[in-house]
Design goal:
The structure holds two protein chains of two kinds. Chain A is mostly helical. Chain A has helices at 6-22, 26-45, 51-68, 72-102, 119-135, 144-152, 154-157, 165-173, 179-212, 220-251, 269-275, 278-295, 301-319, 323-350, 354-370, 374-384, 401-413, 426-453. The chains are: A mainly alpha, B mainly alpha.
């Protein structure tokens, strides 16, 4: 069930919130939240819903073995193998078999791809909790229900933010419920809804026309603009989802970690990954990059280069079982490595101009992310990088005035626009606050109108 | 206790003139010490003290104080 759907907004959320707030104790709310989360997951995943309580309980049970038995190392190994195994089985087996068949290994038949919502997110959460317990025994959680809630909680279940157990440990047991936090949550939710429904969904139609139809018809300019539009779309799609997740979290009394911090104003790819999908990039940093870099520390910068490339290979792989995603990740890893070796010095001298370098790399790499397969990606690149090519279709063929305006606002909102401090307090502050609320109501109404008239609006990050 | 030798090594590696290094500090709160050169910093400290730390021991350190403690435990 998507947050941006009529069924979620008008049936699921109000009924759930009423029940949630009627229950008197935190532990009752927690049990209720677990049950409702399973229902939420069942809606999209059907019978595979079993996977969720099993993962939750296994995460707790393994941490018990790690913290309370003599076989710490062995238990951790089994834990990681189990969760990575689940991930491979549900997400990568088809891809591996296809490649084996392609390589000429006999005895395999292609399998139908399984789709399991959010499996990459909740297995990663389970793994991080167990590694943390392994590193410090005192992080073991005695109460299995708390770990269960950590794994299953529906606001962050399908698409993050990737929460660490320690980040919400206290909140799982004790959290405040007050009106200002609730209203803050509602505001945040509406912002996310608007980002997704009004901007990302509108732009997705445009991107689809440019990228998925015959690429030989478009001019190089259209190809570039198409990818820039996609860069805007994916940011609004994913950060919009995150806003809604954080918003629902606040309505329930949780403070979920932020996931985005204006990624498109970064001055290096290194910085970009500190601003884009932050909870995920911290995860791969802590559990993949750091252990690798420490292992290879006597190799100097070569060790760091290799660690970065391997980490971003995994990052690409995590996004989906295709060579496109693998290339998308690995190429960025190589650039991160170059930056660490020598490029960062020069980028620092360029100051603001370095933003264009980042956008150039990010937008170019997104071709792999958006196209359907490698040959599609290369024919798209061929159009982008042959400036003399004539395309039958120019920008006019794709942009209506409405889309141009939406694209313009999309770019505008990628930048940190802050009101001066003097507009935040006193009478001016009150007026701004009232205007802000009115604007949010309008955004909400417009989003609803769009939602009711459209039936199809999948989130890009639901695939992962 | 953060020793003078420990502090000097860090300042030298990061090309810092001076910076107050306390036990509760996280590595990335020291200017220039980030995730990318973390491994180099560990290698530099090992070279200075002529010790070898186990990977897992390094990864288990949460802050500068714990890293200092780990190094001290190897010197005994």
């Amino acid at each position: 069930m998507a947050f941006s759907s009529v069924i979620f907004l008008f049936y699921f959320l109000p009924v759930f919130l009423a029940g949630y707030y009627l229950l008197p104790r935190v532990w009752l709310k927690n049990i209720f939240l677990i049950i409702v989360s399973l229902l939420f997951y069942f809606w999209g995943a059907g019978n595979l819903v079993v996977l969720l309580p099993v993962t939750g309980f296994a995460a707790w049970f393994f941490s018990f073995l790690i913290a309370k038995t003599r076989y710490k190392g062995l238990s951790l190994l089994i834990t990681i193998l189990t969760f990575v195994g689940v991930l491979i089985y549900f997400k990568y087996l088809g891809f591996i078999i296809d490649n084996l068949i392609y390589a000429g290994v006999s005895g395999f038949t292609p399998m139908k791809p399984l789709t399991t919502l959010g499996v990459s997110f909740f297995t990663f959460q389970a793994i991080s909790y167990n590694i943390d317990v392994y590193r410090k025994n005192k992080r073991f959680e005695k109460n299995p229900a708390s770990v269960m809630l950590y794994i299953t909680m529906f606001p962050q279940l399908i698409s993050g933010p990737l929460v660490r157990y320690q980040q919400i440990e206290q909140q799982l047991k004790q959290r405040s419920f007050n009106f200002s936090q609730f209203s803050e949550g509602v505001r945040r939710f509406i912002i996310g809804l608007g980002k997704k429904v009004l901007i990302a969904n509108s732009l997705s139609v445009l991107v689809k026309q440019i990228v998925d139809d015959d690429v030989n018809m478009i001019s190089p300019l259209v190809a570039w603009v198409g990818m820039i539009v996609f860069a805007v779309q994916i940011f609004f799609d994913f950060s919009g989802y995150t806003d809604m997740a954080i918003g629902v979290g606040k309505m329930l009394g949780f403070d979920l970690p932020e996931n985005f911090n204006y990624p498109y104003i970064s001055r290096s790819i290194t910085e970009f990954w500190r601003r884009w999908h932050i909870t995920f990039s911290k995860w791969i940093k802590d559990y993949i990059f750091n252990p690798l870099a420490i292992e290879l520390r006597y190799w100097g910068n070569t060790g760091i280069f290799i660690s970065l490339v391997v980490t971003f290979f995994v990052c690409g792989m995590w996004h989906g079982p295709t060579w496109n995603f693998i290339l998308w990740g690995t190429v960025q890893g190589v650039f991160l490595g170059f930056e660490e070796l020598f490029l960062l010095k020069y980028l620092n001298r360029l100051k603001g101009i370095a933003i264009f370098y980042v956008l150039f790399i990010i937008v170019s790499c997104l071709v792999f992310f958006r196209t359907s397969d490698i040959s599609h990606a290369f024919s798209y690149y061929a159009v982008m990088f042959s400036p003399s090519k004539d395309g039958a279709l120019g920008l006019n063929a794709f942009f209506s005035t409405e889309l141009a305006i939406i694209f313009f606002f999309g770019i505008l909102f990628c930048m940190p626009l802050k009101l001066p401090e003097r507009f935040k307090t006193g009478r001016k502050g009150n007026i701004i606050y009232a205007l802000n609320s009115t604007l949010l109501i309008i955004v909400f109404m417009l989003s609803l109108m769009r939602l009711v008239s459209e039936t199809y609006n999948p989130f890009i990050y639901f695939k992962f | 206790m953060i020793t003078e030798r420990f502090k000097k090594t860090i300042l030298r590696e990061l090309h810092l003139d001076d910076f107050e290094i306390t036990e509760n500090l996280l590595a990335n709160q020291i200017p220039g010490w980030d995730s990318l050169n973390h491994a180099n910093m560990i290698a530099a400290l090992e070279l200075e003290y002529k010790i070898r730390l186990k990977n897992i021991e390094v990864l288990n350190c949460d802050n500068i104080g714990e890293l200092m403690e780990l190094i001290n435990s190897k010197l005994k």
